Each structure stands twice: as structure tokens, then as C-alpha cells.
Amino acid sequence: MNTSKILRSVVQALLAPLIAVVVSMAVTSIVVVVAGASVGDFWDVIFKVPSHRNLVNITNQSALIFLAALAAAIGFRMNLFNIGIEGQYTLAAYTAALVAGQAWFPGKVNILVALLVAMAVGAAWAGIAGVLKVTRGVSEVISTIMLNAIAGTVVGYLLSNHGQQYGQGRRTTPIPESSQLAGWTPWKESDGAIWTLVILAVLAGVTISFLINRTRFGFDLRATGTNEDAAVVSGVEVKKMVVISMLISGAIAGLIWMPALFGGADYYGPPFQRTLGFTGIAVALLGRNRPLGIFFGAVLFAWLSEQANPLALVADISPSIVQITQGVVVLAVVVAYEVVRRWTAAYEQRELKAALDREAVSA
Amino acid sequence: MSATVTEQGTPAGKPSGGIVVRDILKQFPGVVANHDVNITIRPGTVHALIGENGAGKSTLMKILYGVQRPDGGTIEVDGKQVRFSSPTDAIKAGIGMVFQHFMLADNLTVLENVVLGAEKLHGIGDEARAEITRISDAFGFGLDPDELVEDLGVGQRQRVEILKVLYRGAQIIILDEPTAVLVPQEVDALFANLRELRASGRTILFISHKLDEVLAIADDITVMRRGETVGEADPKTATKKQLAELMVGSELPSPETGESTVTDQVLLTLDDVGLVDERGRALLKNISFEIHRGEILGIAGVEGNGQEELVETIMGMRKGTGRITLDGKDIDSWDTRERREAGVAFIPADRHRHGLLLDFPLWENRILGHQTKEPSSNGFLITRKAAKESAEQIVADYDVRTPSINTNARALSGGNQQKFIVGREMSSDPSLLIASHPTRGVDVGAQAAIWDHIKRARREGLAVLLISADLDELIGLSDTIEVILRGEIVGTFDPQTVTPQDLGAAMTGGHSTEEGGAR
Amino acid sequence: MRRLSKISVVAVVALIALTGCGNKTDNKNDKTGSTANADVCKTAKGNGPKVGLAYDVGGRGDQSFNDSAYAGLKKAVGDLKATCVEGEATDGEAESARESRLKDMADAGMNPIIGVGFAYSDAVNAVAPNYPDISFGVIDGFDPDQTANKNVAYLGFAENEGSYLVGVAAALKSKAGHIGFVGGVHNDLIKKFEAGYVAGAKATKPDIKVDVKYIQESDLKGFGDPAGGQEAATAEFDNGADVVYHASGASGSGVFDAAVSAGDGKWAIGVDSDQYLTASDAQKPHILTSMLKRVDVATYDMIKSVADGSPLTSYQTYDLKKDGVGYAKSGGFVDDIASKIDEAATKIKSGEIKVPDKP
């Protein structure tokens, strides 16, 4: 009885993501066919056993995506739609790179200071949206989108006016060698290194998970997210919560690019990886805003992007096609969860009916 | 109610609109709302459907009006089997519905409200006005088509709702708890209207759980319990006691509190409390009263006269003027959490909106409102074990019927949800309980249990502010009753001597008021 | 139900965000499909150099930069019996993805490997030392560090010289004595276009007025924002300019539309490739000329150097002399002034005119 119950709950938990993945694979296959390429080739490339180099890259990218999704999830858990992760991490990455590049502090201290700066900048940028919401009633969706645009322009302006000449672009002064982290090379050196600060993703995941599930603050946050009126009645000061949640979300967003920065990027410049903020929003949805779900979502997205790289080379399809897979899987998961919820409800209903009938017979 | 109708039904006078309901089954996730429901409604009668809240009346009514589709069983109207997929179909079949909560636009006139969505019937001009006047005169509604709805009283608004369904040609009118929002005088007026309607040959399905009213108006009575129809009764011969026993299978509980336990220690003082909305209109004016330890102060009033605002001001959710003192301390500057920490417990009127996190398990709902205190948390961390133990205790002590404390609050019936809320608030060892409609929508068993818990706490020195629309509950439980009207206290009554009629008059600003004072 | 709709809203927002960033994806997929059969790499079976061509975002079918590189590749397949593989960047991809792409090609034995676009500079710099026997080329590339790589060529262009020529054309065609420039992103590269264009115009008509506008300060989406291009160009036309030169990639179609809306006698000048050939019928009568940046020449040159056994290395500048830049004559609108433009070209080649590369 008990094991079957556990089994059922496991099936219920996995069913929706499974359906979503199957649906998105089907849709992608159709798109591949329409584009005139071979479906077999396509999936061969995506599902080929990843090389050591691929594994390193998937790990590194998963960490960045995980941080981005975590930042989004904190807001979502409280019904705050922080669409501004993109701007927050761009500004934070720039500022942290700028500060670290100045080498005001020696070696590892420099890293720590830069991390704090990144969190502070991310938090402050997100905090603007939070404060606007509670004082002026500005929807955070609007304000964060605007702040994204402003962040991009500000960084661009500062970079092109105060940056170091770098080919035809500009960059910040590279961080000193003493502050660069070698990372962990599980295989050959040419396969690349797993960034040291990937650990930030693990730490942030555990911390946020603990904060949300085990602390009073987390309870208040979840309560506000699920029923704001009831939260107010229970003594939660929603305005304060909005600002604090935005600050935390922004602080996590500020960390997004840190593993890469200290893992080999060394400066803010043209190779800076954009659009992680939006990827994060999608992955947060995919992972139902739960750290564990986000983890699997991040790995899935990183896997798809990395494995898709040789698509043009091998299967003559644009690797961008996996963005369709990624988009569909997010949409499908939303629908699938609702479908599974209804199935489950119907099942419980039948159970209850059966129980009622038994009662009626025995009565 | 936005549907249009193509024909006008049968001419008045000849009874029509008989309904036969057979073996209706309706299931919701986790609940069987209706099963084995069988009712035969004779045309041209007032048929009462009674049952405790949660007995399945509302579900049945929604099925009859096409809002929900049954999972089994059949419905016949005038001998023809029907299948409604939306209220539009029900309206076409001549069924109209008056909801408990009115669906009227305040800033429109009676005429505009009535023709809204039914413009094709008689246009929106003089023809429509003439039709409205005709219906109003025929049934003695006394409505002026050009009056603004915001200027109308509750009883008049209800008549506008009834007029709306008649205008759309309804032969069968379903009234959902129509008296819940009315004071006794208005109830009499409503019944007069209903008799007129019956005389015109229309069929009325009257849903209620108030037995006096049912006996006064109904031709036939069907009783529901736990989702099924359990019996029929003839109002000419049936007694209240018999009906009540059919409804609950036990005797009616009484809210009587017994002897006074009021102490001389003042716990809560409101001194000239006022509140204005953002447009500067007064929601509360000059509210002053005291509640002693061991005292239950009842607030009577027609809904929407400032009760909600009063509660929210005391809870610190709204910032008013004047002074509020709790146990000798001025709490005006305290926020809601500080007030709760100081021992204010709260049973909100709308438990789904204000009292529960429906998709959270019960044990987490134990924490809600008590996040900062043991056993919920140690200030920073949620103490899961202690919270779960406390939740188990509440489930046991307050007879909350649930498979486990890990069940989501949504899965529980309304009565059990309410019992859990009461248990939660009581187990925080409060000094003041603000109870807003504590037994609304719960079954008789739960109602009695909740009354018992409030009475016991009162004996132990709890001060209670009780807000209720149920005058019997107010009179039975309270040590003092204040009547609120348009945000002001307009009278103070002694429950030992006051009658529901007196209260009703005061609540509507009628004649006998001030001199009923008890102190 | 309420919860579902709320989630749906977020999903849609996220999707818009995703597709908004990858909006070039759609048309590209079409192109990939339609040109898949025409892919020269599928049929090439020579014994010449094995070429790895890594495109920038947009890939083959962008009717610009990447296609131009492909044209060079095609020529190499025909003339040098080259074989080839291709890779393509996605928007917002990681640096490691670019490196992986190059490594995949290197591991597959490609030589040379050419990255199209300056974004490959860092990746090539990281990968090249591991493959000392393979020659790498980066279009518009540069060496990011002090350590020179013996096996990397940075294939740059004298865009200022080409822009000078279309500046001459603009000045000669302008009746109002007032012309405009629309840059995609305000970076050093695009400033080079601006500098040459302004110099060419002023040299022809010293009192000419030149409006300069940039779509974005630094965000690369300035190269993919036709609405932004249209807005900037319309402002310049409204201000009295009658010829507008754009250096804004895919945003240029907006500039052309602005010229169409501005009416007869208003001109736009294209960039990188001969944009008259790919413009719509409505736009064609307004495309005066295009500044040609011969990525195909550089690509072919790189492949040929490997085939000849003396691979290009270090900085290579494709200027007028090397036929690396030029101007287009399609449409015949500059036929009457071609002699004057060619005269300027001759002077640049001879060194008589020095074209500035900064405004």
C-alpha cells in the first residue's frame, strides 16, 4: 500500500516533464523535416555520447543557467515576474569585472570583493523595480524590461568610453592572474576545465532551497506567492517582502556570470555571454521554480545547446533549431502539469467514490 | 446572465415549469458533491430545498442553471429531458437564477441593468421601460426603471435581480439563499413578492437553511444531506425539529452562552476610531467601544456597513484615525504581525481568501498567521516537527476530518477548514479573538463545535469581537451587541432582551434604535 | 484555472524573450532548408584543401557577411578543388561553444579553418596553439593577447576606403547638399565606416552637411533592428538629407524602407554586399550603390594561400589595392558619376589620398 503510494507519486512527478519532453521532441522533429533535413541525423547529433570536452562545457553552462533560473524562481515563488535578470547580470558582470580588473585587493580577496560587488549591483538594479512597485505601483514586468534596456545601454556607453581597446571592440581591464582560478581539469587540458566557481551554483541552490523551505522568511514568501491576501492577514508586510525578494533575486542574478569571469573569461568584453537571463526564466518555468527541477532543466538546456553545436557541420541544420525544442518544452511542461493534475484529481475522485460506495454497502 | 432569449415563455396564469431531477451525480476532485439526488418540483409552487451548508444545494442549483454539467442522472423540464451546457441553455428553457451575491452595476439605472445582455428582447428604450414597469407593477416590486442602482437598498436590489430573470422570460426562478442578505422586514417583503409570482403560475425553487422561513413560504420541501436528497416534507405538518433532524440527523444546537463571564478588566478599547477611503469618503466614523476579558461583543449590521473595515483596522491591515488600546497598550503604530504576536487571533470571514493557503498542506496552514511564534518557528527557522505536532493536536481536538495533516487544505470540506482555522487561532492562546462570521458555511455539527470552543475560551477570559450576519448566533453568543450602519455604531443592545426584529430595524436605520441600550 | 492562466502568461513572456533573442532563427531556418540542397560542401569531392568555415550568428543565407564568405568558399571549391564543412553560431552562445566548433573542425582534419566575424578572435586564439599544423583565419579578427600565433591570419578590411568611395557618390548625387549616415552599433569598427564616408563626401563637396546616427550604443542588436534603422534614417531624411548610407547589417532594410517612404529622389546606400541584388522591388529604385566588403575575396585568398603551401598569417588588410573593398554599380544609378568615383579610387590606391579611419 505504502510502496504503491510512493510509486504513484513518483510517476505523477515524472509524468508531466516526460510528456513535455516527448511533445517537444515530436514538434522539433516536424520542424527538422520541414527544414528539409534528416530527423535521424538530428537526433543522432543531440543524443550522441558527449565527449569529455562536451561534458565540461555542459557542466559549466548548467551552472550559469541554474543561477539564472534560480534568480527567476525566487521572484516567481512570490508572484513577482523579474524579467530583468538579463539587465541585472549584465550590469553586475560588467561592474564586477571592472572592480576585479583594478586589482585593488590581492589574489583571492579580489575575487571575494568582486562577488560581493556583483551581488550588490544585481540586487540594487532589481531593487529599483521593487521600490518602484511598492511606492508607485509600477508593474515589475514593465520596469524590469525597461531596466534591461537601460543596463545594456549604460554598460555599452561605459565600455566604449572607458574600456580598453580590444580589436574592434572594447573590454574592461583583465583581472590579474593571481585572481584567475584554474578550475578543475578532470580529463586532458585541451578538454577544458570545470570552473571553480561552479560551486557558487551549488551553494546558491542549497541556500535558496533552505531559505524558501525551512525559514520563516521563506514561508512568508511562499504564502505571499500563493495567496497574498491571506499573507497580509497573517501579518506579512507584502511591500517589504516585494523589495526583499527582488533584492535576493537580483543578488543571485548578479552571480550568474561569475563562474565564467573567474574561470577564463578574465574580462567583460565581446565574448560576454548574453541572453542567459531569458534562458533562466524559461528554465525556472520548466523546473516549476523548485531548485531540483531547475537543476534538471538547466542540464537539459545546457545539453541541448552543447550537443547542437556540430549540427550544421554534421546534419546541415542550424543549431538554432534547438531553441525551438527549448521553447516547446517550456510550453509543453506548463500544459502537461495541468493535464496530469487533472488526471490525478480524477483518479483521486474515483478512489473517493469507491470508498464512499464501500461505506454505503457496509452501512 | 448575459444571454439572450428568443421567446417569452408561456403566458402568465397557467402554471408551468415543473422539474424532475433524477439520480444526479456530480464529482469534483476529491469530493462527491452530489449523488442520488432526486427532486420533483410541481409547476406553480414554491419548492424549498434545504440542507446544511455543504450539503450539495449549491452544486445542484448550478447544475440546474447550466453552470456545471452533471456526471450522471437526468433533468426534465415540463416533461422534456434537457441537457444544459451553459446558462444560456437554461434561460432558453425558462429557468432563471438569482444569486446570493448580486450581479448589478451600481452606476447604471435599473433599466440599464435589466436590459444589459438582453437588448434584443425589447430594445433599450421605451419598450423596455414599459415592460419593466409592467413586471414591476404586476408583482408589486415598486421599482422605478430610471433609478440608479447605487441608490437602492438591498431588498430593492434583490427585486431588480428577480426582475432581470422575469424580463428574460423565466418560468422557473431559482433563488439561492435569498434571505441571507436581508433583515427580517425585507424578508417579509420578499415573501410577498414570491407569493405573487407563484400566483402568476411561476415555479420557484427556494434554497435555504433557515427553517422558519422555509415553513412560512414553501409548498413542498426537499431535504439534502451530504450531497444526496434524504427526504421530503410537507410544510403544513412538518415541524422545525423534524426538518432539522432530517438535515443533520441530530438535534439543533443552540448558541446560548449561559451565564455571564464578563470581567471588569478591559482588554480592547476603541476610542473614536475612524477610517476614510482613498476618495475621502468615511468608511468608519466615531467608533468607540470596550471589550472586557470574558466578554463577547457582537457587531450586527447589514453586510457592507463597515464590519470588514472595522476588523481590518483592528488587525492593523488598514490605518485609521483615533486610538486603539490592547491590554492597556496603545497599538496604533503596530503592524499586523505585532498585533498578532500580542495575542490577537483572527477568524476571517472569507476563509479561502484570508484564512488558508489552499494548496499548502494542513500543517503549513497551522503556521499561517503564527509564523513568528512557537510552535511554528523559532523566529528564524520553521520548526517543522513542532508545527506538525500542533497540527495533529488541532485535528484531534477540533474534530477536523482529514486523512492526514499532509493533505492540502483545499481537499477539506468548508466546515472542516473552518474548524481547523478556529483550532489554529484558539491554540495560539490568544487574549482577543476577532471572529468574523465564524460559522458561515459550515454544517450544524461544526457550528455547534465552534460555538462551544468560543464559549469555552470566553469562560477562560478571552475577549471576543463577534461579527455575524446570523442574528440568532449574535443574540445567542454575545454579551453585548452593537449595531453598525454606514460605518457608525447606531445602537447598543442587550441580547437578553432584544429581538431579531429590533436588531433588523436598527440595522436598516429604522425606527426603534438608541433606547435599546443595555449598559 | 487562475493559476494556470498565470503560469501561461509567464510562459508566453519567457517564450517571447527566447524567440525575441533568436528572432533571426526563423528566417534562417527557412534559408537553411531552401539552400540545403545547394550546399556546395555536400557535393564537393576534390583533393584540394579541406576547409572548415565557421559562420557567425545568422549563418549561410543571411544575404550579407556569411553569404559572402560562402561565395568565397564556393569559388575555392570550383578553382582549388577544395572540400569543406560548415559550422554556425547561435545567438547568445557561450565562448566555449565557439571553441568547440573550431576544435570539432580541427579534429576532423580541416585546414584551413576560417571564423567569420571578429567574435571568433578569442576562440581562435585559444584553440590555435593546440593545432600548430592547422592554419586559422578570422574575418575582421584581431589578436587578443601579446603572444603572436604563427598559424593565425587576421583578415581585416579597409572599410574606410570603400566608405570613402560611396561618400563621394553620395556627395555627387545629393541635390540638397545634405547627406546622412546610420550606424548599427557605435563601436570602433562602425566608426571606421563613418570616417571614410564623411571624408569622401567632404572631399567632394567641402560644405556638405552630414547627419550621423547610431541605432545602439553597444548592444549588437543594433545590427538586427530594421525598425531602429528605419527610425534613424527617417529622422535624417526629415532633417533634409537626401542620401543615407547605412553600416548596420540587417537593420539596413529599415533604412531602405525609410528611403522608399521619403519618396522620389531620396537614396540609400547599402553595405558589405551588393544589396541592390537582394532588395525588394520597391526598394531597388532607391538603392544608389553599396559599399562592398569582399569577404569572399579574403576567404578565397586564405584558402588559396593554404593550397599554395604558404598560408597567410598575422594581420592582412584587404583594401582597394587588393580589391578587398569597392562599390557596386547594380541598378546603373552611379553610371554617370562612375568616372569620378574611380578617379578617387585610383588616388587612394596610389596613396595620394589618405583615408582616415577615425571620425
UniProtKB/TrEMBL annotation, chain C:
It is a lipid-anchor. SUPFAM superfamilies: Periplasmic binding protein-like I. Its main location: membrane. Residues 1-24 form the signal peptide. Keywords: Cell membrane, Lipoprotein, Membrane, Signal. Residues 55-357 form the ABC transporter substrate-binding protein PnrA-like domain. One of its GO terms (cellular component) is plasma membrane. It is found in: Cell membrane. It comes from the Bacteria. InterPro entries: BMP_lipoprotein (IPR050957), Peripla_BP_I (IPR028082), PnrA-like (IPR003760). The keyword Protein biosynthesis does not apply. Belongs to the BMP lipoprotein family. This is BMP family ABC transporter substrate-binding protein. It comes from Nocardioides pocheonensis.
